[in-house]
Amino acid sequence: MSRNISIKSSIDWPIVFLYLALVFLGWLNVYGASFDYDQTSIFDFSYRSGKQFVWIICAIGLAGIILLIDSRFFQSFSTLFYVMMILLLIVTAVVAPDVKGSRSWLILGPLSIQPAEFSKFVTALALAKAMSRYGFKLNSFKNYLLTGLIIALPALIIIMQKETGSALVYAAFLLVLYREGMPGLIPLIGFCCVVLFIIVIRFSDVPFAGVEAASMGLVIAFILMLLVVLLFLFFYKSDRETPKYLSLGYLSVFTLATLIHLTGWIPVNFLYVSLFSIGASVIYLCVNAIRFRLRHYWLIALFLIGFTGYCYSAEYIFERILEPHQQMRIKVVLGMENDPRGVGYNVNQAKIAIGSGGFFGKGFLNGTQTKLKYVPEQDTDFIFCTVGEEFGFVGSVVLLMLYMFFLFRLIRMAERQREPFARIYGYSVVGIFFFHIAINIGMVIGLAPVIGIPLPFFSYGGSSLWSFTFLLFIFLRLDISQTARVH
Amino acid sequence: MINDSFSNRQYVIRIFIAVLLAIFVIQLFNLQLIKDYGEQADSNALLRRTIYAPRGLIYDRNGVLLVYNQPTYDILITMHELRAMAKNNTPLDTLELCQTLSITKAEFDKRIKEVKNRIGYSPRVPQRFITQLSPAEYAVLQEKLHRFPGFTIQGRTLRNYTYPVAGHALGSIGEVSRRMIEKDSYYKQGDYAGVSGFEKSYEVALRGQNGVEILLRDVAGRIQGRYKKGEFDKAAVAGDNLTVTLDVQLQILAEELLQGKKGSVVAIEPSTGEILAMASNPTWNPGILVGRERSHNYSVLLNDPTKPLLNRATQGTYSPGSTFKTLQALVCQQEGGITPETLFACNGPASSPIRCTHHHGSPVNLVSAIEQSCNPYFWNAYRATLERGGYGDRNANFKANYERWRNDMMSFGLGPKFKDSDIPDQVNGSIPSIKTYDTWYGPRGWRAITIRSNSIGQGEVQVTPLQLANAIAVIANEGYYITPHLHKCDSMLQHKHNSLIDKKYFPVVKEGMWRVCEFGTGKWYKLDSISMCGKTGTVDNSHGRPHSLFVGFAPKDNPKIAIAVVIETSGFGATWANPIASVLIEQYLTGQVKRPELVDRLKTSSTDPDVKKY
Question: What is the mean pLDDT of chain A?
């Protein structure tokens, strides 16, 4: 059997078609977004759509080359790639010129490339290799440290390059770790962290029940924590007694406090009321833990104590660790600041562009907001605006569906791998694509803070397109050898 | 499979992805289908630029162009572009711009501040910075304009006038007031509209329909073409060209004759009600209320104590004096108070209760009474009319007679102003009502003798020169008038009003009026070629010399012109008003005036030293 026949018969055609469809649609939208009223042809090389066409042709060529390389090559050389990549990133951080505050672009004559884009699939390969070693399990501190290091090292260097957005992408590997056995509690705790953070920050300046000292953010966060504990006990631990007593206790405490507050005898500080409830719960849980010798109760008590501390420090983290422009972006997303001329300008204009698209959109090349450059970065990070404005709700939903099919197909492919290396790499691909799609579109439609990362296959730019192509086609190559072997 | 006990977690991951994308769909639904961003998007990207419709031209009754348009240029400023330039370190060369526009830096700053404080100001929308540059000023600026990005030019038109006359009748154009904008959404701040005279009455027809072009404006404020290739653009529709009823030569002469005097002239074509001339002095050259000088000149006119802005022809109210006797003669016949044969004795200055100011034989009949302007005759005629059948129970019969007299008088168009006329700025005259006298004297406290002054037009009766001229047109027409009007068109001819006077009573009055001009008080200015009918009036004036009035029409048969002339505080009716009317009638009927010395004397003599020429 010749190699060509093997590729043709065993390549996953659905994903190839989805890839080509997305790239083609992306190219049309780059044309739409960068369209100038003087421009006559989509192939005009002095415009971005023309250049993007060149990047696409090159990307397809590169994809072909990747498919011709032996799959074992990627596995064998992944560590070497990783080391070289880390060195390249460090070199870049040192020698790269300052481009709009970022030091991530290497300029080689007429070509400028962003190594950070390519470090994604290199990191994915290294991680897959490390985690697919025989007997590797996510259960020891050593293994966590190793995986953590592999993921965090490039991210840290990229942060040094002032590309915080690209660095955040490495959070996508959490998905891989979860799939490979990281306790579900960890993402759950992470989720709780995010939710509590948002609540505390969002309502930090609002007094609860008219008492200045009681921050509504903290009160809501604490009540939410108590509810989580109740639900956790009730459903997950199937404990009926403890939650019953606890909930009765909470009810009576809060009812009493509310009654006192309503009579207007003294204004009740509900912050103390909720803190009291937490304290009482911790003591009750500890007592139960000792009485019934249940380790979980210790953990739950610890959860309550830990998150109480976390909530109190959330404001500190927000104000001291985040930079002012980052704080502003978060405040804009949370609707705490309305700054349509400053930080909120991009998002506000993006919403106007998308919102004015209506159900069917204004039609290809008929968008006024994008054509007239009201949305900054409209052909790169904010390209989804063009989709929203010119193709409307229908077009936007179709694109989201395409992305969902794409991701689900990748998951299906990852799941059919026999080799852990290929599966872990496959989930890395899923995680990275998902993170980009979620954060990019979330940002454009005002659900996520502004983080400058591209929309896969849509945003203008050779580096990102090639990097996504590498990422995808290496996985396709691994999948081909798997399928070929099965046949 | 090897080392894979977590395969089920793929479903958690799938659900997570699906839930997140579902949230995105909800947000898209919210943005694109619930909220309306269309308006915001349009205000971002679309610039609606008004294309001003050329205003309709105005011609006189003979097709002479009176009012036309001249180009003018407004300088617009777009603050956003100015700011963008400052950011690019290429700020505006303010000094050079100021020199080009010949304004000071302080004035420049003041204007910028004013622009920013405007209601509805937007830095991306071009704002009027300096308005109404002349073509010459524009030529200087145009060469340098490329050096002042952020400044653009918008062409407009201003009015221009062939002759410096008829300011009151034609009116002028001014910037629309906020009230006008609120009333009519057609106007935007900075637009012009007719604010007085004919321009105001026919504003909607003259203004036409402004067009709009919708342009695409990019984020830097640059124009990038037409929205949908101009699909929604609207071309401007030019205003209608209208013809006024004025005869401009007559108007010019009327205004010249009024120079140095306070007064007015109204000439009407009796058969059509068309205003042939309507002049009020002091007046102004309409050309001075145009362009950048408008506001200055307007305030000068406004503050002149001789009130040039007052249109004395329609807004001045006077006692008609002896001119009223012509109407009195008709009403008294109609109501049976007198016949043409009725004789009344006149004791000259010794007459009581009203003395006669003229010397003539006694007794007099109606024709002679008009010819000699005999006061006692008309007092007796008036009394005979009002007291016909006695006073009756509680004066009821007297009051009924008075009411009929009043209605007859009002059927000449006296009393309230002409509501169906297109002549703006009219005021009401007055024919007092029974109620007025009841209030003054008590329901039974007044009799014919009480209101005797009405008999000779000196009492509470008040008329505007327009009403007076119209009443004379009724005599000329022997019984009806067409509402006097300024727009020469067929529809205005439909407004025919019949008087309550029978046609048979008119010839004797006409005869009397003819005799006035032949042998009576008006004989000094009779015309050889034209048989003129008229009546002088000398109206007592508590402020000084009497007002000089003359009413008349000509020719006697088939009259072509009815005229009323009022010269304030100047003397006898025969001294000023009569010659002016005579000259105007000659001009209108023969196209020339063969009495150059008289014309010169009238033009150059002044009855009021305060009257200025604008």
Answer: 87
Predicted ipTM? 0.90
**Which of these three, B221, B243, B265, is where a domain ends?**
B243
Pairing mode, strands A106-108 and A111-113: antiparallel
Residues 6+ apart with CB under 8 A from B527: B554, B582, B585, B586
B205 and B271 assigned to the same domain: no
Q: Does B218 touch chain A (CB under 8 A)?
A: yes
Distance in angstroms (rounded) separating the CA atoms of residues B100 and B141: 6
B49: which strand partners?
Answer: B213
Q: Where does the pLDDT of residue B236 fall: very low under 50, low under 70, confident under 90, or very high at 90 and above?
A: confident
A286-309 in b/e form (b: 16+ CB < 10 A) is eebbeeeebebbeebbebbeebbe
**Residue B23 three-state SS:** helix
Q: Is the CB of A261 inside 8 Å of chain B's CB atoms?
A: no
* Bridge partner residues of B173 (DSSP): B194
Mean pLDDT for chain B overall: 86
Q: Given the structure tokens 């496959």, which residue do they identify?
A: A426
Q: Does A402 touch chain B (CB under 8 A)?
A: no
Residue with tokens 């007694």: A241
Q: Which residues numbered 45-84 in B keep a CB inside 8 Å of some CB on A? A: 45-46
3-state helix, strand, coil split of chain B in percent (to 5) is 40, 20, 40
Q: Rounded to 5 degrees, what are φ and ψ at B329?
A: -60, -40
Query: Could you tell me the pLDDT band of residue A485, with boundaries at 50, 70 and 90?
Result: low
Q: Number of structural domains, chain A?
A: 2
Query: What is the residue range of A241's domain?
Result: 206-331
DSSP string, A180-194: TT--THHHHHHHHHH
Judged by a CB distance cut-off of 8 A, whether residue B28 touches chain A is: yes
According to DSSP, the residues that pair with B562 across neighbouring strands are: B268, B553
Contact A34, A49 (CB under 8 A): yes
Contact A123, A85 (CB under 8 A): yes
- CA–CA dist A102, A104 (Å, integer): 6
The predicted-structure confidence for A381-423, as pLDDT tens digits, reads as follows 899 999 999 999 999 999 999 999 999 999 999 999 988 999 9
Q: Which residue has the tokens 């799941």?
A: A415
Query: Any idea what the CATH number is for the domain that residue B376 is in?
Result: 3.40.710.10
Cross-chain residue pair B3–A400, CB shorter than 8 Å: no
Q: Show residues of chain B in contact with A446, CB under 8 Å.
A: 27, 31
pLDDT at B598: 85
- Residue B218 and residue A36: Cα distance in Å, rounded? 11
Q: What is the span of the domain harbouring residue B284?
A: 248-604
